[in-house]
Design brief:
Blueprint (H helix, E strand, L loop, with lengths): L1 H20 L21 H9 L16 E8 H5 L8 H4 L7 E9 L18 H4 L9 H10 L8 H14 L4 H4 L5 E3 L1 H11 L8 E6 L2 E9 L9 H4 L8 E3 L4
Antiparallel strand pairs: 1-2, 1-5, 3-6, 4-5
């Protein structure tokens, strides 16, 4: 009986093999095709996403009543060597060595800008709000002036406006070669602009303007949309410094 059982089992194996040989092969067309969402992004794509300064409306206070912002970054040594510095010891005292500071975050229209707008927030910036940005806007006088002239036109509460100032400043990467200047140097406005563009992927040339105070560098002005993404601003860009060379005073 065991002998016949073995023959039957062997016959069933042969039959199964014959049937399997007639089944269609697993061709590439039959296999699932990976979708873009299932593929890992390239390292370049990851880098671009990580570096792109795009604001999100969910975490950026949304202003109203204007078209975009201008973030004005001032080179503090130029200001401190000018008559405008006066007795500003907060920014220009002997123990201070500020480099790029926030002059202001200015609501801007495609042509012109609003200023000194009526607001229920009042004119005086309390110390508790001012101290939240004093490391990047190094004087309460500057902070108060910027709120009255520009922040009042943002459509934001005072605390939200200065929170936005901080976010805008943190959005920008200062070029390493321009972050701390130990000795006076000469360069061109175009070279400064190019350095900021290299350090901030996605920043178009038409979104940045370098201004000068006589022969010295004064400010770098960068245009941001209301969610703090880069955007072009031809009117601002047209006011760039036209000198072929400018001086960068040292920070100390």
């Amino acid at each position: 009986m065991g002998r016949y059982t073995g023959f039957v089992a062997f016959g069933l194996m042969l039959a199964a093999a014959a049937v399997y040989s007639f089944l269609p092969a697993d061709t590439p067309a039959d296999r699932p095709i990976p979708t873009a969402s299932s593929e890992a992004p390239s390292s370049q794509a990851q880098s671009d996403k990580r570096q792109a300064p795009t604001g999100s409306e969910s975490n950026v206070p949304q202003g109203r009543g204007f078209d975009f912002y201008v973030l004005a970054l001032s080179w503090s040594p130029t200001f401190c060597n000018s008559e405008a510095a006066g007795r500003n010891r907060e920014q220009c005292g002997e123990d201070k060595d500020f480099g790029w500071v926030v002059h202001g975050l200015w609501p801007q229209n495609e042509s012109g800008w609003p200023e000194n707008c009526p607001t229920s927030e009042g004119d005086r910036v309390p110390q508790r709000i001012g101290r939240s940005v004093i490391d990047i806007m190094p004087s309460m006088g500057l902070i108060g002036h910027q709120w009255r002239k520009h922040g009042s036109c943002s459509g934001l509460a005072m605390s939200d406006y200065f929170s936005l100032v901080r976010q805008a400043y943190d959005t920008i990467r200062i070029p390493g070669e321009l972050s701390d200047v130990d000795s006076q140097s000469r360069t061109s406005p175009q070279a400064v602009e190019a350095a900021f563009i290299r350090s901030n992927p996605g920043l178009p040339r038409s979104a940045v303007a370098v201004t000068c105070d006589r022969e010295r560098i004064d400010e770098v002005r960068i245009c941001l949309d209301r969610s703090l993404g880069f955007r072009a601003c031809p009117e601002v860009d047209s006011r760039s410094c036209r000198r072929s060379e400018i001086t960068i005073p040292p920070t100390r």
